[in-house]
Amino acid sequence: MSDLEDWPGSGLSDEELDVAYNVRRKAGEELFARHMARYREMSEQAVDGLPGHPGIVYDEASGERLDVWGTGDGLRPVFVFLHGGYWMALSRDVSSFMARALHERGVATVVPDYTLAPEASLEEIVRQVRAAVAWVHRQGREHGLDPERIVVGGSSAGGHLTGMTMVGGWQDAFGVPEDVVKAAMPFSGLFDIRPITRIYVNEYVKLDLERAAALSPALLDTGHRCPAVFVAGEHDGDGFLEQSRLFQPRWGAGELMVVPGRDHFDVVLDLADPDSRVSAALTGLFSR
């Protein structure tokens, strides 16, 4: 683990950090509201009439649930999508916009909820999303999911949580193999979360530098290095772009894709477009 005072943006002022990481302010309230409306509308359209198993409790300790969408004949490879919202907003209900496009390519989608901050600590949120991956591996066959073909992805805070399923050191406690995550696609991920200790989000997640370092994928044992595509939008927040550019070469088993014309909120919606570069890259991860 690197020095606790040596982290991306540590030399910036609080105002400069806010500019780098406050993507909602960068987008503006009108555009942000349009993006959120698209999340909901596209998700509702994607799952309308789609075969699946919504509302399954995957973690008895928290009672949190997940939705399974796009099942079919036999066992299907599965994309586990972890929603963003800086760990304190959004839900599975607005996060299944890719389900129909993947279903048409023979891939199922699993979208879990997790308890939001500040009700849950970030350590507990990480535990829950790891439990969701473990549920797919242990019980997925009962719901048409192939436990040997799990790809995990997520946007923003969900990109951080994706990273926390990619690293090693947690799998034994959940009774899953080290390579349970066969590939990953974090969008606008946060991989060294120490900058969070100095921006508004910390009012909710309440981290100090030591805990933030312990919850940073970039500072943890990589374990089995699965293939990965690190995605960000051309017009993403500067802090998020820097995070992917720093972690991708350290991971050493993935590529960086910066999508032209996209911002922090709409780049992930390209998963719903089967003709997009992002969608093609995800499909490619299932064949590695």
UniProtKB/TrEMBL annotation:
Query: What domain of life?
Result: Bacteria
Q: What is this protein called?
A: Alpha/beta hydrolase
Can the keyword Hydrolase be found in this entry's annotation? yes
Q: Which GO terms describe its molecular function?
A: hydrolase activity
Q: Which Pfam families match?
A: Abhydrolase_3
Alpha/beta hydrolase fold-3 domain residues = 79-166
Answer whether the UniProt record assigns the keyword Hydrolase to this protein: yes
Q: Which UniProt keywords apply?
A: Hydrolase
